[in-house]
């Protein structure tokens, strides 16, 4: 299964590197969102300080919508989903590969965004380990849930609009947990970020398990 | 009743001793007369739905190993659906469907690995090169990547295009690459949906040669086409589909592919 997952992930990342969509469109979009939030809250610096974590993760969620839309489109545009079934690739491996590729892209964007909040919002990182762990776990959770939902709407005609409607509520626990953990990592609110990280780990584990089990059914039926 | 032994990757007669006289309606061609009949596709009153629409409404079909069958019919008759069903991509709603000795109700994954389907889509990734695409699908299908270049050569895809992104290819070149992708898999059952569509004259001749070669190598070919002038002569048998049902099943043309007359073709 892991050989196939690596194959699918490498293929998706190679496609991404060739198309340069993340570099040329997604990263500038994320930067713009961050700047616009900054403009909106700049008049009230304490509010901006308190909202930095939330703004960061809302931006990541917006970016994840784009990444998942694109990841889904790669397989639906020219019948590749059907070909994956014919090739005999395990659906669970397809899920893991595609989720890994989405997570890698999101992590790359998050590195830029962290630079953005430090420069634009004057954020200080007080617990780097918690910050990195939160990014990794929350991103895997977002990528897993997004990849699964992407497969769910793959056969829907208006999937571009349906996906956000499904994805944002499902990812609400990630937004909550990751924001709280970030609050602790940035020292903006006195909370126990590690306990929120534990919640994120649970969410992520459930989504990975669901994806591995359910992706095959979705691949067959959509 | 003879059956196909799953996993043997070649046709074998296991039980019974059916002669051509037992099924004069379907046994055709010089090879068919001398080789024992083995059912590769056996459909009995099969109904398959696309959404709620019964795209196949009680299909009966029996195709033997090594046959080249032309599936003919008007648009929307169910030809593509029939090919997708045989590829294991659709579940039969009712009736009995067996492909390569495997029941489609329970063993579709096993069927898929052993068939090659050329559909309307090419299943190629635009951003990857021709070679990267075929190497990906070869690795995904557990086929040696060394089969890629010969397959591309076989389809007349010039070497200078092997490292070109698929997005830069013409529709005809894409179609050739998609056909090469089927060749790489060396399937036991070829399912070709409008294989001549979008190809120039030399491409169409190559498709004919591929079908001839596949049949002579012992594979079975089901081909949906509107190119009757070419394919009727190529096939040993023509099945007419209309309204999701087989309405005629007859011996066609010379059965050139099955009878092994392909070598005499002048391009």
Structure write-up:
- The complex is a heterodimer of chains A (222) and B (267).
- Chain A is mostly helical.
- Chain A has one domain (2-221).
- Chain A is built from 9 helices and no strands.
- Chain A is globular and about 55 Å long.
- The model of chain A has no long low-confidence stretch (mean pLDDT 91).
- With 267 residues, chain B is α/β, with parallel strands linked by helices.
- Chain B has a domain at 66-89 and 114-264: P-loop containing nucleotide triphosphate hydrolases (Rossmann fold), CATH 3.40.50.300.
- The model of chain B is unreliable at 1-33 and 259-267 (pLDDT under 50).
- At the A-B interface, helix 1 and helix 4 of A face helix 4 of B.
The fraction of residues assigned to DSSP E strands of chain A is under 5%
SSE string of chain A, helices as H and strands as E: HHHHHHHHH
Q: What is the terminal separation of chain B in angstroms?
A: 41 Å
* Main sheet: strands, sense, barrel of chain A: none
Which stretches of chain A of 5+ consecutive residues score pLDDT under 50?
A: none
Task: Draw up the topology in text.
The complex is a heterodimer of chains A (222) and B (267).
Chain A lengths: L1 H18 L1 H21 L3 H32 L3 H8 L3 H30 L7 H25 L6 H12 L1 H15 L6 H29 L1
Chain B lengths: L28 H6 L4 E12 L2 E12 L3 E5 L6 H8 L7 E6 L2 E2 L4 H5 L2 E4 L11 H11 L7 H7 L16 H15 L3 E5 L7 H16 L3 E5 L3 H7 L2 E6 L2 E7 L4 H4 L8
Parallel strand pairs in B: 3-8, 3-9, 6-7, 7-8
Antiparallel strand pairs in B: 1-2, 1-4, 4-5, 9-10
Helix pairs in contact in B: 4-6, 5-6
Summary keywords:
heterodimer, A: 222 residues, mainly alpha, B: 267 residues, Rossmann fold, six-stranded mixed β-sheet, 9 helices, 10 strands, 24% strand, globular
In summary, what is this structure?
The complex is a heterodimer of chains A (222) and B (267). Chain A has 222 residues and is mainly alpha-helical.
């Amino acid at each position: 299964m892991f050989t196939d997952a690596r194959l699918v992930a490498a293929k998706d990342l190679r496609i991404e590197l060739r198309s340069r969509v993340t570099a040329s469109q997604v990263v500038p979009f994320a930067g713009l969102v961050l700047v616009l939030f900054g403009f909106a809250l700049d008049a009230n610096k304490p509010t901006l300080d308190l909202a930095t974590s939330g703004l960061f993760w809302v931006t990541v969620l917006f970016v994840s919508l784009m990444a998942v839309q694109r990841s889904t489109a790669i397989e639906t545009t020219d019948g590749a989903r059907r070909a994956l079934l014919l090739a005999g690739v395990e659906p669970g491996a397809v899920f893991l590969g595609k989720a890994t590729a989405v997570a890698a892209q999101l992590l790359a964007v998050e590195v830029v965004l962290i630079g953005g909040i430090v420069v634009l919002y004057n954020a200080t990182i007080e617990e780097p380990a918690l910050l990195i762990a939160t990014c990794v776990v929350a991103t895997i959770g977002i990528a897993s849930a997004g990849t699964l939902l992407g497969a769910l709407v793959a056969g829907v005609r208006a999937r571009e609009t349906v996906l956000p409607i499904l994805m944002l509520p499902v990812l609400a626990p990630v937004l909550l947990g990751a924001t709280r953990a970030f609050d602790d990592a940035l020292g903006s609110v006195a909370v126990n970020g590690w306990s929120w990280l534990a919640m994120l780990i649970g969410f992520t584990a459930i989504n990975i398990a669901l994806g591995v089990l359910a992706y095959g059914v979705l691949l067959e039926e959509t | 009743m003879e059956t196909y032994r799953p996993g043997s990757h070649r046709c074998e007669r296991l039980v019974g001793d059916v002669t051509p006289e037992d099924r004069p309606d379907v046994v055709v061609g010089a090879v068919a007369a001398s080789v024992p009949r083995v059912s590769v596709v056996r459909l009995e009153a099969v109904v398959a739905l696309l959404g709620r629409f019964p795209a196949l409404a009680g299909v009966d079909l029996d195709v033997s190993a090594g046959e080249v069958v032309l599936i003919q019919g008007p648009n929307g008759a169910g030809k593509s659906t029939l090919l997708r069903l045989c590829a294991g991509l659709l579940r039969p709603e009712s009736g009995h469907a067996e492909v390569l000795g495997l029941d489609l109700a329970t063993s579709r994954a096993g069927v898929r690995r052993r068939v090659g389907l050329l559909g309307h889509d090419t299943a190629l990734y635009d951003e990857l090169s021709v070679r990267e695409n075929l190497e990906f699908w070869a690795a995904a299908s557990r086929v040696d990547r060394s089969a890629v270049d010969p397959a591309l050569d076989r389809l007349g895809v010039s070497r200078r295009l092997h490292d070109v992104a698929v997005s830069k290819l013409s529709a005809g070149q894409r179609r050739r690459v998609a056909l090469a992708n089927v060749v790489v898999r060396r399937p036991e059952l070829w399912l070709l949906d409008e294989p001549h569509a979008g190809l120039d004259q030399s491409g169409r001749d190559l498709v004919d040669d591929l079908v001839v070669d596949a049949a002579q190598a012992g594979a079975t070919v089901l081909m949906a086409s509107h190119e009757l002038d070419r394919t009727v002569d190529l096939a040993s048998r023509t099945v007419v589909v209309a309204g999701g049902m087989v309405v005629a099943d007859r011996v066609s043309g010379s059965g050139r592919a099955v009878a092994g007359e392909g070598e005499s073709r002048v391009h």
